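Sorry, I am new here, but would you mind making up a protein's amino acid sequence and the tokens describing how it folds?
***
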Amino acid sequence: MAISINTPLKDDVLEKLKIGDKVLISGIIYSARDAAHKRLVELLSNGKEPPFDLRGQIIYYVGPTPPKPGMVIGSAGPTTSYRMDPYTPALLARGLKGMVGKGFRGKEVIEAIKKYKAVYFAATGGAGAFISKTIKKVKIVAYEDLGTEAIRRMEVKDFPAIVVNDIYGNDLYDQAKKKYRKN
């Protein structure tokens, strides 16, 4: 059974989440990929404010396809998360509480997730058309020149994900590898 959670994320909610938990996210999440992350961290490094308040927010690593007529967004499947690793600790330090993508995270990011009490969720790769149905409204909020990689504010309802890294430093992928090797 999935756990329903709402954004912005609060510490008391994150404290209850454990690796392997299935969640349904509702509220506002933001999209951003490599180029947008680089710009965000450059802003922060220069003492400037990001285009949205990072505190309690989730960033979804996605570059959606253009919407078909009558749709708010096209296919919106997750992209590979480790490409955002060089930028993630700085965003977590500013209050980011969740990330959604696919694949593993590096050791430095997992330590930052633990330090700043955040969570990394995985979305199912190849399920972009299904995931797009959980996205109800979309608005570009920054870096429109990046096209599909612009930062979007997305209102979601029951967006499906799985907890991969929890606030306690646990890693679902690492535990799965250990379990597999024992068998």
Residues 3-182 form a domain with the fumarase fold (CATH 3.20.130.10). The mean pLDDT is 95.
